[in-house]
Write a structure and sequence with these properties.
about 350 residues, five-stranded mixed β-sheet, three-stranded mixed β-sheet
Length: about 350
């Protein structure tokens, strides 16, 4: 994949000779993160499919009449599994002493996740933060559209130490226009990125135990896009635990009342989402849609997998399945593990 000149220049400063112009080479390298003085791992793999990236402008406020063209993402940011990941907080996953999080398996599955993601977008994996067990879930720390990024104020107190390194990386090394949510509403605006669904036409913000209405205004003002609050209750941590998008008119949601209620609150059909695909397994509804591909979860539900394969085939999209069963034990899913940037 060809990167934008700004992204390539920024990452060249990190990785030195591993870059050949603006094209990632397949050489595995170690890079020095200038923001915190510690090593970050960059695994630039040659992509199986060439998807030229182009900027996606958010210079004017976007509403229901926005373009239906999805942004082409130039890079994804992930973070390595911390050694303390078995201590990650969990609300909805019920664990016994025999089926807790397996650290080694978590790391294996995460590497497979990165391999799958890199088939669609160059991916930079930042170093682990071992004293923060949930830091693997990098999505919760930032919401970004174009060159604008909002550093969140995570809803759970134990997670608020994760955001500073992300802020420094995005602002100092990628040169993004960064807004820090902690500086607004007297520090009382709270948001997990997992509650924010950006479909390229709308920005839906789930109001959950982790995200409040004060955060909606911060996101709307900083990103210059109308933010649509979505209240929901049920057996789900975040909005994207229930609903994600495949393209600008296609949503995935689970069968049953929880999916019904959230889609109704979103006014999904009224807002032009003509294809709403329902799956029997809720975890399977969480997919990463990026650059003409779908990274999906193999959750052992054959019906959900078959439906997703049909969805991809009908739309001419590539689909890659990975297993993230260890992440699911901490209420996590695929989108939690990366941040997509179109800069």
């Amino acid at each position: 994949m060809i990167l934008s000149s700004r992204v390539a220049t920024s990452l060249k400063q990190l990785s030195g000779s591993c870059w050949r112009g603006s094209v990632l080479t397949p050489t595995r390298t170690r890079v020095l993160a200038q923001d915190d003085g510690i090593a970050a791992s960059l695994f630039p793999h040659a992509l199986q499919k060439h998807n030229p990236c182009r900027p996606f402008s958010t210079s004017s406020r976007t509403g229901d009449t926005a373009s239906t063209t999805s942004p082409k993402y130039s890079i994804a940011i992930a973070r390595h599994v911390p050694k303390t990941f078995p201590d990650a907080i969990s609300k909805f996953a019920t664990l016994s002493s025999d089926d807790g999080i397996d650290l080694k398996n978590s790391m294996r599955q995460h590497e497979k996740y990165l391999d799958g993601l890199r088939k669609f977008v160059p991916t930079l994996c930042l170093p682990s933060i071992d004293d923060l067990p949930d830091s693997l879930f990098v999505e919760d720390t930032v919401v970004a559209i174009g060159n604008r990024a909002v550093i969140t104020n995570p809803g759970h107190p134990s997670r608020r130490g994760e955001v500073d390194s992300i802020r420094q990386f995005l602002s100092e090394q990628l040169g993004m226009n960064v807004t820090d949510m902690r500086d607004y509403s007297h520090g009382q605006a709270y948001c997990d990125g997992g509650d924010v669904l950006y479909t390229s036409r709308h920005l839906f913000v789930g109001l959950s135990e982790r995200t409040n209405i004060e955060a909606v205004k911060v996101l709307q003002d900083a990103l210059e896009i109308d933010a649509i609050p979505v209240r929901f209750e049920g057996n789900a941590l975040h909005l994207k635990s229930v609903v994600t998008h495949v393209d600008s008119t296609t949503l995935l949601a689970p069968d049953g009342s929880l999916g019904d209620d959230i889609l109704s609150t979103m006014e999904a059909k009224e807002r032009g989402y003509s294809d709403i695909v329902r799956l029997p397994n809720m975890l399977a509804c969480n997919v990463v849609s990026v650059n003409g591909g779908i990274l999906a979860q193999d959750v052992g539900c054959h019906k959900s997998k078959a439906i997703l394969e049909d969805v991809a085939l009908e739309r001419g999209l590539d689909i890659e399945f990975v297993t993230c069963s260890e992440v699911a034990k901490a209420d996590g899913a695929l989108t939690c593990l990366s941040v997509l940037l179109n800069i």
